[in-house]
Every structure is written in structure tokens, then in C-alpha cells.
Write a structure and sequence with these properties.
139 residues; D-amino Acid Aminotransferase, Chain A, domain 2; two-stranded antiparallel sheet; 9 strands; 26% strand; globular
Amino acid sequence: MAKHAATQAQAYEAILVDENGYVTEATSSSVLIVKNNLLQTAPLTANILAGITRCFLLEWADEVGLKVCEQSFTPAHALTADELMITGTSTQVMGITKLDDKTIATGKLGPCTKRFQQLLKEAMNPDRISRVKVNPIGD
């Protein structure tokens, strides 16, 4: 229903908020913000999925020059972020420049989002993925 409502509002994605007013995740993506050199996302204890792309970003944060903070945040806090992004298997790393028709920071993709996109692209390079030979059962 949330994804349908987002589509009706001509938005790419819907960001979900829990009963306490905290951002949890999007309909098929994790939500992360960058503010003051801190990469922040809801903790797994907030009943969110441990998305693999989210996990990659948390692992790469130091390489991007960010500290990690797994702590819930409100939509109002997201609006004050330096960068807002969603991540997922199909979404990969997508910068969000508007939330509820309000511009995030400069309204352009930030340097951390771009760097995470580059790191994910490099990680997905077929030349870097090891090939594993699997033998059928009984061989």
C-alpha cells in the first residue's frame, strides 16, 4: 500500500515510519543518512531487514571517511541531512534529493553517495567475483 501511495504521489519510494515517529526503512530498501561525517541508519532492533547492500555501506563507511551510527531518526532529522540515500539489491545505492517535496541539502547527489555507488559498482565487477565450481550431489 505504501509503494502504491508513493507511485500515486509520483515518488520513487515510500519511507516507512514506526508508531513512535522514527524512520524504519523504505518499502523495498534500507534508508541511511549522512550528517556531520556520520552514516546513520535505524538499528536492526527497530525491526528492519539486515539488507546486504546496507551491510556493505556500513562496512565501507570508514573508507568513505564516515563513522557509523545505528540509531533511529525522524523524518524531520532526515530533512536536515547532508545526504539521504536508500539501498537495496535492485535499488543499489540511490541518493534521495527530495523528501516530501522538501530539498535535501543542495538537492544534488552528495560525495558520500557517489563514493558508495562507485564502491558497489567495483564490488559487483564480474572480474572481482571469485568463481566457485559446484559439483552435483553424488559426484
